[in-house]
Amino acid sequence: MTRADELMNIRNLLQRRRRAILSANEGTHRELSALKDQERDPEYEEQAQAELADYTLSTLMESQRREVMLIDAALRRMDMGVFGECVDCGGDISIERLEALPFAIRCEEDASLHELDMRGGHQQSIPTL
Ligand SMILES: [Zn+2]
């Protein structure tokens, strides 16, 4: 398979994953609304449990949203034709790396350099992609 084919595969995977997350997100949203309705019920006694579930669902929705954002960013990079290109050296990021980390924007070498930079620097430690 050529690199272009491999990238197309990753694109399809990301699009499928995006749809799956969005429908999961809808489900989470419904659960959360159902929970809120329940909480308004004065007869509802399991308040602490409801709050925990509420928190768990909100956190889940948040991480689903974040993943969709990452996927959208990757798809945008594909549209611009720069997906799989290292933002630091401009070289190709290996397919193996992209398959494992489709949101990677750096080649392995630059990612580890970047990580070192971040540890030494003042930047906040955000995960290196
Ligand atoms: Zn690089």
**Low-pLDDT stretches:** none
The computed structural class is mainly alpha
Largest sheet: none
Number of E-state strands: 0
* Domains (count): 1
Please render the helix and strand layout as text.
Blueprint: H1 3-40, H2 47-79, H3 95-100, H4 108-120
Helix pairs in contact: 1-2
Zinc ion (ZN) binds at residues 86, 88-89, 91, 106-107, 109-110.
Account of the 3D structure:
- The protein is mainly α.
- The protein has a single domain, classed as DksA, coiled-coil domain (Four Helix Bundle (Hemerythrin (Met), subunit A)).
- It is built from 4 helices and no strands.
- Helix 1 packs antiparallel against helix 2 (47-79).
- The radius of gyration is 20 Å and the shape is elongated.
- The model has no long low-confidence stretch (mean pLDDT 88).
- The protein binds zinc ion (ZN).
- Zinc ion (ZN) binds at residues 86, 88-89, 91, 106-107, 109-110.
Condensed summary:
InterPro entries: DnaK_N, Znf_DskA_TraR. By secondary structure, the chain is mostly helical. The protein has helices spanning 3-40, 47-79, 95-100, 108-120.
Primary descriptors:
mainly alpha, Four Helix Bundle (Hemerythrin (Met), subunit A), elongated, binds zinc ion, zinc-finger
